[in-house]
Amino acid sequence: MRETNHAVIVDAIRIPIGRRKGVYSDTRSEHLLTHVIKGLVERAGLSQNSVDDVIVGCVTQNQEQGNNIGRIATLMSGLDQSTPSMTLNRKCISSQHAIHQAAQSILSEDHDIVIAAGIENMTRHPMGSDKVEEPKELTDLYEIVPQGESAERIAEIWGLNRNEMDEYSLRSHQLADQATKNGDFQNEILPIEVEVNGEKKNVTKDEGIRPETNVEKLGSLKTVFREDGKITPGNSSQISDGAAAVLVMSEEKAKELGLKPRAKIIARTLIGSDPTLMLTGPIEATKRVLKKANLTVEDIGYFECNEAFAPVVLSWMKELNVPLDKVNVRGGAIALGHPTGASGARLMTTLVNILEDKNAKYGLQVMCAGGGMSAATIIEKV
């Protein structure tokens, strides 16, 4: 038995997030994923045969994102062939759950070093391209609606108006732009060289941030899911391309290798929620993970709540009395983008850096997922 039995985050990185039909349009998903796995291993100075497992979140597992892309990228990264890998799909929480599974394997003492990663090139693998018609047995039980319709209903239930959601969305762009200018993302972003229209390009910054936008521009956008609705492309997460990876170890192994942990995973939870109002799961998941950690909202220094749609975050904040100045302080998916399978690892990467930069003790990450699911994680800065 280990003397200490904690799962710790030793490092976390991501590539810049690309816009749909942007800088990664001509780049295969395996290349993006391989880049972050290889970069993570090199930054930590690990040997090729030291990683016990690689767990990858990916939502649209077809074509180049199929065939267990995690295993393919693990082999391409230069890790020893003895390193296994799996690819999992829990919709938008896929790579957050990969982090949970990494922690579980360490806590069970099955493994000492696990990489939890995520990949999604939504340009090359459009959202829903793997979808089939829902079976009648399901639709007889539940009303199955698009996620945007769920967001519309949440806005109605919590009394959120269009201007409130657009103002929140503007904040996301402003904070992400300021964080970029301040160099706040520098430690988490791993630049990548790709080909765009036959020319090499070194990508160093997130592509989706719109510093020039304002409430008037956001207010002029047409609604998407209802003619008289409130949900627009401007107050929704961006369809994006990206990859991220998190290095999880046992506390004992990190000490043995002379590596300083950056954060400790102290609580995690995964729940199912109403599949029609499928985006409300973060409310209950947050309550449960706080209870597990014996903490309150007031104890948390900073929150990363995925900006799938503005009303998801706003309703969550209202229900739990979470102060705005603690939430997504470097912008979120509305500005940075939401490459679905990669977003869980991306949010964790950002949260680790925020806790360090602002010298805060606890951070909480929470996300909703299609079909009515949510995951929440609490970490403690080491």
UniProtKB/TrEMBL annotation:
Residues 8-252 form the Thiolase N-terminal domain. Residues 259-381 form the Thiolase C-terminal domain. PROSITE patterns: THIOLASE_2. Keywords: Acyltransferase, Transferase. It comes from the Bacteria. NCBIfam families: AcCoA-C-Actrans. Belongs to the thiolase-like superfamily. Thiolase family. This is Thiolase family protein. It comes from Allobacillus halotolerans.
